[in-house]
Amino acid sequence: MENLAQLEALCERLYNSQDSAERVFAENTLRCFSQDTNLIPQCEYILENARSSYALLMASSSLMKHVTENRLPLQLRLQIRNHAINYLAARGANLENFVSSSLIQLLCRVTKVSWFDDDIFRELVKDSMNFLNQETQHYAIGLKILDQLVSEMNQTTPELNMIQQRKVASSFREQALLQIYEISLQSLLGQKADARLKLQEAALSLSLQCLSYDFVGISPDESSDEVGTIQVPAAWRLVVEEPSTLNIYFDYYALTNPPLSKTALECLVRLASVRRSLFVSNATRLQFLTSLMMGTKDILETGKEHQKLDKWTVACLSLNNYSNFTGQVVMNSDYILGTGLNHHDNYHEFCRLLGRFKVNYQLSELVSIEGYGSWIKLVSDFTLKSLQSWKWASSSIYCLLGLWSRMVTSLPYVKGDIPAPVRLDEFVPKILEGFISSRFDSLQAGPLDDLSEDPLDKIELMQDQLDFFPYLCRFQYGSCSTYILNVLDPFVQAYMEGAKLQDHVFTSNLAILETKLAWMVHIVGAILKVKQYSGGESNETIDAELSARVFQLINVMDTGSYAQRFGELSKQRLELAVLSFFESFRKSYIGDQAMHASKQMYVRLSELLGLHDHLLVLNVMIRKIATNLKCCTESEEVLGQTLRLFLEMASGYMTAKLLLKLDTIQYITTNHSREHFRFLEDYCSRRRTTFYYIIGTLVFMEDSVARFRQSMDPLRQVLVSLESTPDPVFLSETVKCALIGLMKDLRGIAMATNSRRTFGFLFDWLYPAHMPLLLKIIMNCADSPQVTTPLLKFVAELVLNKSQRLTFEPSSPNGILLFREVSKLLVAYGSRNLALSEQDDVYTRKYKGIWLSLLILSRAMVGNYVNFGVFELYGDRALDDALDIALKMILSIPAAHILSYRKVAVAYFTLMEVILSKYIKFAINLDANTFLYIVRSLHSGLKLLDSNITSQCAAAIDHLASFYFEQIIMGDSPASPALFVFAQHVSDCADVFLEMYAKLKSQIIASQPMDRQQRLHQCFDTLMADVTRSLDSRNRDKFMQNLPRFRKEFRCK
What we know:
Blueprint: H1 4-16, H2 20-30, H3 32-35, H4 40-49, H5 53-69, H6 74-91, H7 97-113, H8 124-132, H9 136-153, H10 162-191, H11 197-211, H12 237-241, H13 243-255, H14 260-271, H15 282-301, H16 311-320, E1 322-323, E2 330-331, H17 344-360, H18 363-368, H19 372-388, H20 390-393, H21 397-410, H22 424-441, H23 459-466, H24 469-473, H25 477-499, H26 508-529, H27 537-557, H28 569-589, H29 592-596, H30 599-609, H31 614-631, H32 636-651, H33 653-659, H34 663-670, H35 687-702, H36 705-711, H37 713-723, H38 733-752, H39 756-766, H40 771-781, H41 785-798, H42 814-834, H43 842-862, H44 869-873, H45 878-891, H46 895-900, H47 902-918, H48 920-924, H49 928-941, H50 947-969, H51 977-988, H52 996-1006, H53 1010-1023, H54 1033-1051
Antiparallel strand pairs: 1-2
Helix pairs in contact: 1-2, 4-5, 5-7, 6-7, 7-9, 8-9, 9-10, 9-11, 10-11, 11-14, 13-14, 13-15, 14-17, 15-19, 17-21, 19-22, 25-26, 25-27, 26-27, 26-28, 27-30, 28-32, 31-32, 32-35, 35-38, 37-38, 38-41, 40-41, 40-42, 41-43, 42-43, 42-45, 43-45, 43-47, 47-50, 49-50, 53-54
């Protein structure tokens, strides 16, 4: 670098150039500043003398990288710290914001990593006070330093492990955090009457950082909107109890606009989450709660004047209830209910604040507050208005419904006399009615095309809201259920009347009717999901009344003209709602125990519909599932949910036993071709495997060979047809599609075998009659990965010994016979795969088949159902041929590609571990180049970030090194020729194996400063203390015991 001007020009190119080549050149040229610690003085020189802001940013970023990635000497870190703080004091007011932010981050990072190294690092708060005693620009810098310091202490740093991180964070919490929070409060008080928004924003941000601190080291999920109980230390008690603490945030909310008002509400949310035990008495806790309640009450009561909007904006707002007007989400003025709540950010945080009232406080405490009656009335009105604004407030309603749900569930636990009526019986029914009516209002918000934005399609958000519904509804179940039935009955009646028409007109009214029914069915399902026992038989009777309406609806859904509507979005929504209802009903009322405990449910269902027990209800469910699988091919979501429900029902032991009593199930398990289920016409669908897994699970539950063979007859017919197909016809698309579907189906059946007996059913059915077909497919379709991939996945499932299902009788040759067939398939596929040319999609055409082949071989070798010594004893090359072809396929892939494709890497390293643990004889007989390739690939695998791969590589190397140690170093001489060759192979890669410990030791010591090297020699001596030259378990344990001591001493000062 000739001069500073040239460096500044390079920095300008690095951050501003549109030419990627220029940026790469600049990055490569400037990289030395962030990699070479000897250039740290040059970075400080650049900070002192450069005029370009980008040069300053580069120097600051380079210093940050040095501090983060290197263990710099203490004096050098002190120098960086002092230089940064002096530089900010002298020039910070004139720096670009991104430069000052980078320097502040550098200052806070070096403070954190050196927190325990010198007292001066713990004086940063005191040094920041010097900024707060100066003009506006320096005042803002001081607040930013404290803000960044709290943030830095609250997040993980690469330089520190988890234990060190918690020690630093805990020390900072005890020594500085409360002081910083008090500084933020003082700044807020001082800036309250000041119009400088920059300082107000910085002070509010600092407060929020302090209140968001991880006080107890639980590492909360930052992606979640939920705030748990904040475990502030006892030393914070006086500050939190001080009335002005809450009042200052309410004042800032009233005085400012978003985003400042939103930040003020966030601070209030966290204060409302402070642990109850912080308050020493009930009186102080109630005083704090009173301040919170009165503050939120003022917000709800006080309206804010709004600027007049032009006609176009008003029209947009009235149409959509929301608009991105002037870059700010604004609520329709008809729905404005409180100060600043027409801004979406404020509104959402305010909903979160209301939700915290019942999370952290008891209902008796809320009721005891003077003014509770008017407050709960305002909250009720606010909730109703929010429900009406379904599109604008959909993500926030969850918090409000959670508040009401928690209040009604805690009402039975309120003991003693309460000073005021709770009034929940007055408001909860209105909220339920408001929720239902608002769902219907959403359907009238626009034309039919807008139904694609229905809240029903936001599954997770809808389920979150409906989770609270059963608690609210069962609070006054009689009146609430009457309202629901009054709403639902006309819809069901209208839908049943429409089923009588042969040619129903597909109008928007029908789509709206189906969507309304979908909402009501979802609501009924949500109510049934939570079964209430306190209400006794009366609750079951009401549950039966609601369920009967849904079953009536199900009876007509697929009749008449409705059978042609599976492609309509509204019909698909209704189908999903019915499936959700089935799932809830099954969990609450299906099963022997549930039936005996729910007699009134089935008594009432018998009176209404003739469904007198759970078998009849199950039959209704299965018939609906079968209808969906037959007819609903247009919706992948409906198919997926149908199969998921079917799988859950078949997977439960008791439910599966009940299903087998149904004639519908008997029909399905024997008639499962594409003529019966249209979705099977899609040969490439993954749902085929799931469907046949369910079929297999049910069939194997009967434990009958005859029943199994009867159920497999449709697949047998396909197998026989394909076996008789001439080879030239195998290449036709029709045959390929049939092969793809067959392999997916057989894989599903194989997955369902979970015992030795059931696997025997499948194996005896396949071998020897149908196994030649698999080889025929490989020989004719090896260049068609869409065919070979399902086949290889089926074989991989077939050879997997899960639950010891492949444990054959001692006299049975089935294990050997199975492996011989697998070996033939691998050799046939591998030889053809090697001949394939590398085209554009090399992974799909070659690599995918290779890693599946490696997976098959690995599973077969570790299954423990084959005595591989038999092959060598009788001269059978099945194992050797399979290993040879696997090795050839591995060598056909460039080493870089193995590491680049994760599935290839996992399969390869798994096989290497298996070979070196189970069949190391194969490895020691390899030629020198191949052996070196494998060893170096294992060495490369250790450097990957995938923990599973690194574990496999470490295990493989351990097997190889242990064999070398036991057979070569400690073995008896003379060694066999094979061992002699193996020893020569190891010596050829001495950089990997021989003297590795000495090499690693010297590298670690050389990388440390001179003043630490002598002590590190002593650390390594500690590591090897009492470790002998053997591989017995006691010696290994001793080394592992020494390792923590070595790590601790190594990291000490």
